[in-house]
Every structure is written in C-alpha cells, then in structure tokens.
Design a protein that fits this description.
Length: 620
C-alpha cells in the first residue's frame, strides 16, 4: 500500500532588519544559518519570513542599501517572505525594482493592490503535499511609510484577505495546507478561518510561542533573536494535518549553534570593511546621555526636533518656527561623549528627508492634540518638539480637547497666524496618523536627508534640552480669589536621565512649591513626574490670569486660568443699633404694660368724664 503521509518542516523568522552582525542585540546571521540548517537536517524543509527583512537596518547594511542583507538571506536559502512595511521605506518603486531584483526569494503581498513584483501566494510541493503560503502586510501602511511613496496602492485587511484566499485555494484543490505569513501583530487565533492551518505573525516585535490552539500561531520576535520551527505531517488520503512539533528557539539557543558559515562570514566582512571607515568618523559630542522613548517625551526626540528646525532654516529659503519629530523614527540612543557617524546613523537609519509645511496656529494645536489616541494599548504618540515651543494640557480632559496653552518663542500661539513647521516628509505627510499636518501647504521638496540635520547639530554643539516641553495641569476645583487652590501637575519628568526635583507654581503675587514625585506605578508613561501644589489665590485677582509652572530643571510653562472674584462681604448691622434693639427688647413691653394700667386707673376714678369724652367717639 502506497504511503500517503507527507512530512515536512517550516522554519520562520520575522523583522530581521538587516541584523546580520553578531552583537549584544542579535546572534547574527552565521549562528542563525546554523540553526536553520540544523532544523532542516534529514527533512523536507522550507525557510520563510514574515517580513521586514530590510529597512530600519544597522549602519553597515543601510549604508550599502541593504544589499548585504539580501545576499545573506539568499545564502540562507530563504524561499518565501511576506512583504513588510520597512521593505517600502524607500518607496514602492525602489522595492519593486532594486530589492526584488536582488532577492532570490518570493515576496508575497496578497492584500496590497498592487505592489509590483510581488505575488499573492505561492504553492510548494513539500513531500507530496501542496502547501500554499499566503503573504500579507499591515493595512496601516499610509501611517507607517511616506504616503506619497506608496500612492495608488490599496491596502486591504490582512486577515480577511488571508481567510478568503485560503478558502478558495482549498475549495479549488490548489492547496492541501495553508500557511499564513502575516506582517501584523496582535492577531488572535480565532480571527483566522478553518482554512488556515499555520500562521506566522510579524511587525510588532513580539515573541509568541505555540499554545496548542488552532490554527497554530507563532511569532519569532525580531533581529534574528528567535527561530520558529514547525514539524508537520499531512495524510493525503484523509486530508488530516498533524502538528508533530512546534518550537521557538531563543537567542541563547541560536548563539549556541556554531557550525562555520564561510560564505556568510565573507559577505559580513566585506560589508563591514566598506562601511567601517566612514562610520568611525566622529561627528560631534553629546554632553549627556540622550534617551529615546516611544510612549512619552524624550530628550533625544526633542533634540532631533530642534535639529530639524535649525537644519531646515539653514538649508532652505524659509525660517522654521517649529520643529517636530515622531518618536517611532528614533531608533537608538546617544551616549555621552564622542558620537561617530555610525552611532548617529543608528538613531535615524531610514534615510528619510526633512522638509517643511505652512500651517495655521489652530492646525498646529490640532496636531498636538493628535498625540492622544483612543487606544488602550497605546494612548500616546509623543511628538518631539523644538526648544522654543512649550505647551500645557489637562490630563483629565477628553481626547481631542486636552491642549490648554501653546507658547512659541515666549508668546501664545495665534490660531490665525501661519507658522512654518519643519519635520520629516513622513510625518508632515500625515505619517503615524498625524493628519493635522496635512491641512496646510504641500511639503516642500528639499532633498535634505534627516540624518544630516542630526549630524550638523552634533557638530555645532547644539545643547540638549533638560526641561519638559509639555506639562499636565489639572485644577480639581475652580479658582476663587482669596481661597486656597489645589493644582495637580504631571509630566514633570522624562522617565530617564532626570534632573528636576522641585516645582513652583506662581499666580499673581502668590507662589508655592512642591517636591516632584518620580513614582510611575499605575501611570500613563507621559504623566511621569507628578506633584500637587497648594496655593492661596491673591484676593485682588479676578478674570483670566496666567498660572506659571517652573521646575529646577528649567521647565517653564504658562496656562491661562479663570479666577472668580472674592465673594462680597455680608452687610453688617452697626453695633450701636444692635445695642439699642437689645435694650428696647425689655423696655417696650414694660412701657406698654404701664400705659394699659394707667388707662384702667383713670377710667375707674373718673368714669363720667371718660364717658363724656369717649362716648361721642364710640357712637360715630
């Protein structure tokens, strides 16, 4: 009787991002290739990826247009990959021409209509089983890549596309087994249809080990730190698929695999040599460590925003009023001391361009409002802001109505005035869902690389902002002249590399201070650094007043507040009147009684005379 069982193994990585050099952050391609080869020993095997093989890469790979990364993946015998958002960092045209020409594997993008030189799916014959691989990418692409570089492409829901295509492939008999390569995170098993047998996720840099749920769902982290291996058995007669083994190797297990990889090592050595001399050049110096953060204000994000403002002003015909930077574009931190070109590159590896737009003040405020989102997983998308801008917000206010003041160069923002805003083409084209930046003029075409602005700032010795650009100010109760006010403050600390310890509130002639609490337990990240200040409102204040908040680290913001006038005093009765009333209180009754008694006595002693006087009156 003929054997109807097909047995095969699928290995998967995701979000490799060109991390082929062995470092403390990644095992490196040589160790990863060893682990893949070991998983394939004596088996029918296929090596796959869930996308982001290139883009946001370390210095050497990016400097060489990620060619070394593609060559290494070819040597690792990668056969099929989902399209990732970072594959399109340089635009769809660049990907469809240069990248796909170098890659010897198939790129799949079933939900992208249309990215040239990609396929919706491929079917591989694995030990007699027809195994279909469907690739999809996140449909949030317009917010992740410069929208202009992917114009004309439609992005459909990746899971819905996968389910629809999987059902058709199985119903048509084109596939026995369906494997989904989905460059999107946060997807649950129950979102896939029964037609999907295995799903490998990506994009979110998470590690998801198999749980036994159906379909088998895994995610192999990022930078080659994990390798997913799945051994499958398919009975072609009964159409039954069995998961024999599913494992997720970690970085230590991958590093422990040390079979020599001379071909891969040669590519790595050549690439490092080409990039090395340029990367080792010192471009400037950092006075202090500049931290990055994706969920709160950070020193480095603000530093780049200021560098962008100055860089656009120095490299264009305009003078930028405001500089902005999206936190997701800051990929590494800068340590104190000399900074090399390679280190600067690791901070901004995308090779994007800086530009400017002209916006009304009201649109600038709207853009600041867009930092807060109705998303419990990520309620804050912080913007880096140039040193000349500060603002306040009310943490208790609803999304869309949080901003309470904005100051530019020491003056309140004018809602009707036009401001020149400098930033990346990605951000000013509405990237990261900052749509308000698109309300003004079209971004100018400067051809000014974002990394150049950072390098120029480091070279010029641009100072690091130690103060906060924004502070949360909440008043639990209205302010009244002459009464004590409670002022709740937040966002007084960055969360790392702090210097502020004390905060002062000033209102009119009154001042009060408090110690800043660094406690972060149970707090939204951007609220780090809190204090409650008690202040007696001066009795002579009323109407709109400026409440000033300062810290010993240089934070200085103002917010307009309404002060109710002190209540009018009650009208008091003069004391001498009160004394008189008090005395009359016993004199009047006594006098009245005396009069009544006197009248009775007269009537008794002189009855005829009284009758003669009163009689006529009584008869009237």
């Amino acid at each position: 009787m003929a054997d109807t069982t097909s047995e095969f193994t699928i290995s998967n990585i995701t979000d490799f991002h060109g991390y082929w050099e062995q470092t403390k952050n990644a095992p490196g391609a040589a160790h990863l290739k060893c682990a893949v080869d070991r998983a394939a020993e004596g088996k029918t095997h296929i090596f796959t990826s869930a996308g982001d093989n290139i883009g946001a890469s370390p210095f050497a790979s990016k400097l060489l247009d990620d060619v070394p990364t593609l060559e290494i993946l070819n040597l690792m015998n990668l056969q099929v990959s989902a399209l990732g958002n970072h594959e399109l960092d340089d635009g769809a045209d660049e990907f469809s021409t240069r990248v796909t020409a170098t890659a010897k594997f198939d790129y799949l993008a079933a939900n992208a209509k249309t990215v040239e030189n990609t396929k919706d799916y491929v079917v591989k014959n694995l030990d007699g089983a027809k195994v279909a691989f469907i690739g999809t990418v996140t449909d949030d692409m317009p917010n992740l890549v410069n929208p202009k570089s992917i114009a004309g492409i439609t992005w459909n829901d990746p899971v819905a596309t996968t389910n629809e295509l999987a059902t058709r492939l199985k119903n048509d008999g084109e596939a026995d087994v369906v494997v989904a390569l989905v460059h999107e995170g946060g997807i649950k098993t129950d979102q896939f249809s029964d037609a999907v047998d295995v799903a490998f996720l990506g994009h979110s840099h998470q590690v998801i080990a198999p749980t036994g749920a159906t379909p088998l769902l895994m995610q192999a982290g990022y930078y080659g730190n994990n390798l997913a291996n799945v051994d499958l058995s398919f009975d072609r007669a009964s159409k039954t698929l069995t998961v024999k083994k599913a494992e997720l190797l970690d970085a230590d297990a991958i590093r422990a695999c040390e079979t020599p990889q001379p071909e891969i090592n040669k590519v790595i050595e050549d690439a490092l040599a080409k990039a090395g001399s340029e990367g080792k050049k010192v471009v400037g110096r950092a006075a202090a460590h500049m931290y990055k953060a994706g969920d709160r204000e950070s020193q480095l994000n603000n530093y780049i925003a200021e560098a962008t403002r100055q860089g656009v002003s120095n490299n264009s015909s305009v003078t930028a009023d405001i500089g902005v930077m999206n936190a997701g574009g800051v990929r590494a931190e800068i340590e104190a001391g000399d900074v090399t070109y390679e280190q600067a590159f690791s901070v901004q590896p995308f090779g994007g361009e800086n530009t400017y737009v002209e916006l009304k003040g009201s649109d600038v405020v709207a853009a600041l409002e867009e930092q807060w989102r109705d998303d419990p997983d990520r309620p804050m998308f912080p913007l880096g802001i140039s040193d000349n801008v500060s603002y306040t917000y009310d943490p208790a206010a609803p999304v869309g109505s949080k901003i309470t003041s904005v100051t530019i160069d020491g003056a309140p923002i004018d809602p009707e005035k036009t401001y020149v805003v400098a930033g990346s083409t990605f951000l000013l084209a509405g990237g990261d869902n900052f749509k308000a930046f698109t309300r003004g003029t079209a971004p100018a075409s400067l051809g000014y690389v974002d990394l150049n602005a950072l390098v120029e700032a480091l070279d010029a010795g641009q100072k690091q902002r130690t103060s906060q650009s924004n502070v949360g100010v909440h008043l639990p109760a209205p302010l009244t002249a002459g009464e004590e006010a409670t002022i709740e403050l937040s966002s007084l600390l960055y969360g790392q590399g702090e210097s502020a310890t004390n905060v002062t509130a000033t209102l009119g002639s009154a001042t009060a201070d408090a110690t800043i609490s660094p406690d972060t337990a149970g707090m939204t990240a951007n609220e780090y650094g809190t204090a409650t200040v008690k202040l007696t409102v001066p009795a002579d204040l009323s109407g709109t007043q400026q409440l000033r908040i300062t810290t010993d680290a240089g934070t200085d913001v103002t917010v307009p507040v309404d002060v109710a006038p002190a209540p009018a005093p009650e009208t008091a009765t003069p004391s001498f009147v009160a004394d008189l009333v008090g005395k009359l209180g016993w004199i009047l009754p006594l006098g009245l009684a005396a009069l009544v008694g006197m009248a009775s006595l007269i009537a008794l002693l002189f009855p005829f005379e009284v009758d003669r006087v009163l009689g006529p009156i009584a008869t009237r």
